[in-house]
Specification:
With 229 residues, the chain is α/β, with parallel strands linked by helices. The chain is built from 7 helices and 8 strands. The model has no long low-confidence stretch (mean pLDDT 94). This is Radical SAM protein.
Length: 229
């Protein structure tokens, strides 16, 4: 599995895929990504050190992802990231966190001592689809609620059961309320959730302009950031 890459098109940065404890929620219906975790703290710390040793600081920006939220990384790894920030002159971090951690984001900002862009897996702003089908366990009702805490929502498109209207509204809210965002085109995995090929084709044609939008990153494959498998 590749765990380090450089993103050189939009929002240039280094990105690392680290290993943390199991996702605190871990029950999203569509997700098998959470399998990349461990309960062996020493092994996680060793692996994460090997990955972080590749960071150069060349862009001054580092994104850290894991199969859950940044708060599930070992404390030793978080301390190593903080030291790396200072050593390499990193000026901005990207982290991801579940809605349940929204009240701890400022704590992480204070710990790291530099600006952090927090991503959140919204998947969709449609409450019924998000909670009753995707089982996201994120009970906000409006985009404005999310924006109070997070700068960068991650949306998912191309799932059977979604509609064009739902996707159009999601993108409208993303552009209206957030300075940046990520759109993941759903890829079939080991879960029962399935990709809607017609919906994906419609999205890629209708929203091809997003490929040129500097504030939105569209991931057609889950490995488009160059990490994972």
């Amino acid at each position: 599995m590749e765990r380090y890459n450089e993103i050189t098109n939009k929002n240039q940065r280094e990105i690392v895929l680290l290993q943390g404890r199991p996702c605190a929620w871990g029950k999203c219906f569509f997700c098998d990504y959470i399998d990349d975790n461990s309960r062996d703290t020493e092994a996680m710390v060793r692996l994460n050190h090997q990955v972080l040793s590749r960071v150069t600081g060349k862009f001054g920006v580092l994104e850290v992802i894991n199969s859950g939220s940044c708060f599930e990384l070992p404390q030793e790894t978080l301390e190593e990231i903080r030291a790396l920030v200072r050593e390499k002159g990193i000026q901005k971090l990207y982290f991801e966190a579940h809605w349940m951690y929204r009240h701890r984001l400022e704590q992480m900002r204070q710990f790291m001592g530099i600006p952090i862009v927090f991503k959140i897996g919204v998947e969709t702003f449609d409450w019924d689809f998000r909670e009753n089908y995707l089982n996201k366990h994120a009970d906000f009702h409006t985009a404005e609620e999310v924006r109070v805490y997070f700068e960068s929502p991650c949306l998912m498109v191309g799932i059977q059961g979604q509609t064009k209207e739902m996707i159009a509204r999601d993108i409208e809210l993303l552009k209206k309320y957030f300075p940046r965002g990520t759109i993941n085109v759903f890829t079939n995995n080991s879960t029962p959730v399935k990709r809607d090929e017609a919906l994906v084709e419609w999205f890629m044609k209708t929203y091809d302009w997003l490929l040129e939008d500097p504030s939105v990153e569209v991931l057609y494959e889950k490995t488009d950031f160059g990490v994972g498998d």
